[in-house]
Amino acid sequence: MENYYGDPYTMWHDGIDETSVTRLKDEERDRAEDMLIASLEEGSHYGAIGLRELRSTKALPYLEERLKSSAGTLAVEIAVALCLIKQTLDYVPYIITALQKSVFWSDRIRAAKALRRFPTKEVVETLFQVVAKDSDYLVRNHASETILFLHGLQPSISSHKEIFGHMIVDYDKENETSTRNASEHYNESAKMLKRLVEKDGKLRKGPIILDIWSWKD
């Protein structure tokens, strides 16, 4: 548990070494699998991540059951785990729902990043809608960078200064004119981003489920 989770501060600040469980063998792996299932049942999304990395078929009924009552980050990580373990896209709608409807920006960011694994037209269209409409800059940012990634482009929206300029416009939520003006900028950023990927990018193919996170040339 110390090897996987680390100390609480490091876990919060730097994240965890998600792949550390994959180095376990035989009895150690079996024990870790049981501990991660217990962690999942306590509501830990880190439990779902570990089970995903182990490709734990033993955990499938526990993941399925927990998903029924989960939302936000926990639902996202369970859905990703189920997709990767079962090699299916059936659970992607749960990630899309979290991206569109979660009240917490951190959950929406988690969903936007998770969708890098799933290069489908539905996912891309949803991400464009988020770029055009989400009220939080960081969510729009991550959604746009996932779009770039899925089209084989370097996921750095700030490198595209004109698009980025429209995306970062701030607004006063108490001022209708300010809000409307910002909305127009966000819509323009989505339109410009769409033109960019149509011109310079190509939606990834090959394995339907991408088990990678970072951009590769």
Using the CA coordinates, give the radius of gyration.
19 Å
> How do the helices and strands follow one another from N- to C-terminus?
HHHHHHHHHHHH
**Main sheet attributes: strand count, strand direction, barrel closure:** none
> How much helix is in the residues?
55-70%
The number of helical segments is 12
| Mean pLDDT score | 90
End-to-end span in angstroms?
35 Å
Portion of residues in beta strands equals under 5%
The chain-level structural class is mainly alpha
Note poorly predicted spans. Answer: 213-217
**Shape verdict:** elongated
User: How many E strands?
Assistant: 0
Give a written overview of the molecule.
With 217 residues, the chain is mainly α. The protein has a domain at 111-217. It is 64% helix and 0% strand. It is built from twelve helices and no strands. It has helices at residues 2-5, 8-14, 26-41, 45-54, 60-67, 72-86, 92-101, 105-114, 121-133, 137-150, 161-167, 176-200. The chain is elongated, with a radius of gyration of 19 Å. The protein starts with a helix and ends in a 17-residue tail after the last helix. The relative contact order is 0.09. Mean pLDDT is 90; it is low at 213-217.
In short:
With 217 residues, this protein is mostly helical. The radius of gyration is 19 Å and the shape is elongated. It has a domain of 107 residues.
